Amino acid sequence: MSDSGDDFLSLLDLTEYEAAALEELLLLGRTTAPDLAEATGIPKARIYGVLDSLSEGGYVKIIPGRPKRYQPHDPSEIAERAVANRRHAYERFREDVEAVEESFVDAYTPVRDRGVDDLSPTEDLFHVVDVGEPSERETRRLFREAEESVYVLTKSFGYIDAVRPAMRDAIEHGVDVDALLLAPEHLSEKNKRRQDEIRGLLGAEFPSVSVRISDRVLPWRGTFIDPSLEYDSGQGLLMVEQEEIPNHHRQAAVTENPSFVAGLWQYFDLLWRHESRSGTQ
């Protein structure tokens, strides 16, 4: 299936078997459960439950007969049903939260207020997450929550695959994205090739993203959003350069302190204006 098909199926909260079955049905059209099990490798003991779940979700219709046959709904209907399912799930979630919200707030607000005064200046400034999936998850969140601008300071943007959908959504909502990459002469051969691929990808898929190349070795890298010199907005994630420490042992700092983010932006802006060159391919 195409990348767009994989991207869509990943949004449906399906199990691995359900996604495989729906994908194969979209390719085959109408078929029986045993034939679908054979085509997908799904155990025959599981295939009927998988198809029942897809039917309940509104993605597949069951055609009576001996044997029963299964047929996917039209792709546009599947997309509409996916949105409706998510909307209904959200409404149920909202109702559940509202049912217990008052008691939760009453129980924990006094406890939280007692703890605020105990925060150290460092804890108030940022918290840390592990580098890897946790930091990529935070970066996706930043792209999703950005209202005006996203700034990326990175060696080669090697993690772009992990944030592409979130970045695409941000751009489609009118968010400006600037990416400052490290000059290739400061990169390993592997990272040089990877950066070159990514710059080509940015030019092809995200032509609105402004890309520049920094000749200065970067002391830190990260992503931050919506900086304000009035210090009333801004979030960010950054990690300092520590070549001697492998990524899986490193941590990144997450901040929601507008003053700190304004400082990050001023550093970024100086490099962007005075110590970088165009990186558009």
UniProtKB/TrEMBL annotation:
InterPro entries from the UniProt entry: TrmB-like (IPR051797), Tscrpt_reg_TrmB_N (IPR002831), WH-like_DNA-bd_sf (IPR036388), WH_DNA-bd_sf (IPR036390)
Residue stretches making up the Transcription regulator TrmB N-terminal domain: 9-75
PANTHER family linked to this entry: HTH-TYPE TRANSCRIPTIONAL REGULATOR TRMBL2
Protein name per its UniProtKB record: Transcriptional regulator, TrmB
Organism name: Halorubrum lacusprofundi (strain ATCC 49239 / DSM 5036 / JCM 8891 / ACAM 34)
